[in-house]
Amino acid sequence: MQKYLSKVFFVVFFVLFGVLLSKNIAPHYIRNISSASEMYMDVEGTDIKGEKISLPYTLKNVEKGTKIHLYNDFVISTNDMMYVKTVYAPLQVTADNAEIYSYGKKDTYPDIMKDPPTQVCLINIPTAQKVTHIEFVYEFPYDRDNLSLSPPLYGEGSDLMRYLFFKMSVPFVLAILQIFIGAFLIIMYIALLPSKIKASSLMWLGLFGISFGLWSLCECNFTVLIVQRPYVLYVGAFMSMFVTSLPILMFTRCIQDKKSRVLDVLAAVTAVSVLAAVILQLSGRLPFHKSMFFFHYLMLVNFVAMCTNVCIKGTKDKNIKKFSAAYVAMTFLVMLELINYSLNFVSYKTLFFQIGVLVFLVMNEYLTGIDLRNIVILKAENRRLTENMRIMEKQMTARYESGRMLIDTAEELKRQRHDLKHQYIVLNGFIDEKEYGKAKAYIEKLIKAIPQDNVKVYCRNDALNAIITYYAKAAEENNINYDIRLEIPSEVSKFSNLTETQLCIVFGNLLENAVEACCRTESQGRFIKLCSYIKAGMLYITMDNNCDGNIHMENGAFISSKRNEIGTGINSITAIAKKHGGDAKFNVKGDIFESSVCICI
Predict the structure, then answer these.
(1) Would you call 20 exposed, middle or buried from its count of C-beta atoms within 10 A (0-12, 13-18, 19+)?
(2) How many CB atoms lie within 10 A of CB 375?
(3) The model scores a pTM over 0.85
(4) Residue 472 falls within a domain, yes or no?
(5) 572-598: average pLDDT
(6) How many CB atoms lie within 10 A of CB 190?
(7) What is the pLDDT at residue 72?
(8) Which domain holds residue 569?
(9) Which positions ≥6 away from 542 have C-beta within 8 Å?
(10) How far is 253 from 266, CA to CA, in rounded Å?
(11) Is the model's pLDDT at 120 over the cut of 60?
(12) pLDDT, tens digit, 9 for 90 and up, residues 185-212
């Protein structure tokens, strides 16, 4: 566990180091990019005319819808492009009084939105002049109290794109990674559905990874730059953020395996809040970007509540305690992220949250995976024990039938002994009367009346003989020719740790699989050939039987024809053989299934 966590923290360190590279090295590596940080500003309807400002700049106390002009002269080279960003404000860009870009006109976005969502883009500058007068005309937002003005960047197109990639790609890559992990967990959950293993924790953890990854992806400027669907990304970012707490609340419930009134209430509050936010946005009363602040605090409350809940219950339950570290780390980074939203000490929004989610996903995926692996192993063991019990029940049935036949034979012999005196008198009478033909016929009648010994002996071990007899009878009933030649000690346990029960499980599973395989073929030509012998302290068992050739394998293991999973019988045979210093091999050659088992005795 400690080795695994050290790897997780190494990944986190690597991510942080990547952030440092992208923020500090990239600007020095790519030198052909210029920033228009010095601009002149005019605000219509005010006394602000030609005021020189430094970008980024935040404009406040301006009437809604007022036009703000930023302008300056730029030295533009051929093939230069310009990167611009506008935050919830319409924007028009002109070069030498000719419009080269326009965004956010009233008829280009839904009526339920008073302002267009944030947009970033690259603009071609169609000019051959070296000095170009470029003007940016913004409209002050209706739903915000300020206008954020970002510095445009310009330079050769490929250099500009590389620069933006270095500056913006870390959150983008992290978001893709989170979505990938989430999708992988959901695929695992779907794969486990046929096995009827309760793995809903994987589904909720996966949904959490996807919802948070979508939030980060849709909010990332690099995504907006390459997708150019700001309205879709606006809805995707906020809806993903609003619902992010729901799957993690459900995951927390799953790992506790018990109902929690606190978590249920928080899940209900979150669901109702999401519905209310959607209604308010659709009605035009409150946009998503204003509801966001409520969900920030609700998210913090949810994570603090989950962390507290897990830590408290972890003091009584070790299975819950192991998840505590992930919740503590996640809650701390959520708090750090919310502080960053206010103080802005790191320019990448959601960076701390993204790192926290990545650590949370990886740690919980590992812990949940261990739990599910143990469940799968336990279920397979239970299924194997159930199959073994079924074999033993058949052995008991065969022993009962053998015993009943012996009792019936003994009763018949007892009756015949009782009648023997009278039979001798009859025979003596025939002889005295010299009726030798009648005497001979009477003797033949008596011989026919002697009960047959119906118990066939296949080996000297009574327990194994019973199970062989059971399947031999099943073979006869299904028109299967069988040839069974066995060399087995009468008391196996005297020679090794191999018990009669284990021996019966091996032969029982072999014969059961063989009978079932033969029954899936045509009635003509069905056969089973079973042989065993002892050599150099090893018991060798070989069996051939015909099959329909429709044998499925997965990763070198045979798949059961009754269930879409690895065959239990073959697993049991192999496990017993390996436990006693041997092995088991199975092979298909055309329509013949070959089984070979060796066990140290």
Answers:
(1) exposed
(2) 15
(3) no
(4) yes
(5) 89
(6) 13
(7) 92
(8) 456-601
(9) 530, 531, 532, 594, 595, 596, 597
(10) 12
(11) yes
(12) 898 888 878 766 677 888 898 899 899 8
- Per the CB < 8 A criterion, the answer to whether 226 and 280 are in contact is no
Amino acid type, 196: K
Does a cis peptide bond (omega within 30 degrees of 0) precede residue 56? yes
- Write the CATH number for 285: 1.20.1070.10
Q: Per the domain annotation, does 24 fall within a domain?
A: no
- For the cut 50, the answer to whether the pLDDT of residue 464 exceeds it is yes
Cβ atoms 273, 298 nearer than 8 A: yes
Q: Is the pLDDT of residue 151 over 90?
A: yes
Query: Which residues, in sequence order, are CB contacts of 362 under 8 Å at separation 6+?
Result: 8, 11, 181
In a domain, 311, yes or no: yes
> Is the pLDDT score of 3 beyond 90?
no
Kind of pairing between the strands at 67-75 and 131-139: antiparallel
- The residue out of 347, 368, 389 marking a domain boundary is 368
Beta-ladder partners of 441: none
339 vs 56, 288, 292, 297, 336, CA distance in Å? 21, 20, 15, 11, 5
Q: What is the pLDDT of residue 363?
A: 82
Check which CATH number belongs to the domain holding 65 and give it: 2.60.120.260
Selection from 251, 225, 34 nearest residue 119 by Cα: 225
Both 271 and 190 in one domain: the answer is: yes
- Candidate from 66-70, 297-301, 335-339, 386-390 with smallest mean pLDDT: 386-390
Looking at the fold, whether 59 and 94 belong to one and the same domain comes out as: yes
CB 431 within 8 A of CB 440: no
User: Are 471 and 580 in the same domain?
Assistant: yes
Q: Domain check: are 146 and 195 in the same one?
A: no
Task: Give, to the nearest 10 degrees, the angle between helix 245-256 and helix 230-243.
Answer: 30
pLDDT in tens, 204-243: 988 998 998 898 889 888 899 999 899 999 999 999 999 9
The residue to which tokens 């997780």 are assigned: 8
The percent of residues in the chain predicted with pLDDT above 90, rounded, is: 21
CA neighbor of 383 nearest in space, from 559, 579, 569: 569
| The predicted structure's pLDDT at residue 473 | 86
Q: What is the CATH number of the domain that holds 510?
A: 3.30.565.10
pLDDT tens digit sequence for 333-360: 878 877 777 777 666 666 777 787 878 8
Report residue 130 as tokens: 């070296």
What does the alpha-carbon distance between residue 583 and residue 499 come to, in Å, rounded to a whole number?
17
pLDDT at 24: 45
Identify the helix (H) or strand (E) that includes residue 368: helix 351-432
List the beta bridge partners of residue 84. 121
Write the CB contacts of 119 (distance below 8 Å, at least 6 apart in sequence): 85, 86, 91, 103, 104, 224, 230
Strands 527-535 and 481-485, how do they pair?
Answer: parallel
446: confidence class by pLDDT, cuts 50, 70, 90 = low
Residue 329: closest CA among 306, 313, 312: 306
- Residue 293, in any domain of the structure: yes
Domain closes at, from 368, 396, 415? 368
Question: Predicted confidence band at 422 (pLDDT cuts at 50, 70, 90)?
Answer: low
Inter-residue contact 582 to 502 (CB < 8 Å): no
Pairing of strands 592-600, 538-546: antiparallel
Phi and psi at residue 184, to the nearest 5°: -60, -40
- Distance, in Å, from the CA atom of 104 to the CA atom of 140, rounded to the nearest integer, reads 12
Count the domains in the chain. Answer: 3
Token couple for 494: 């005297």
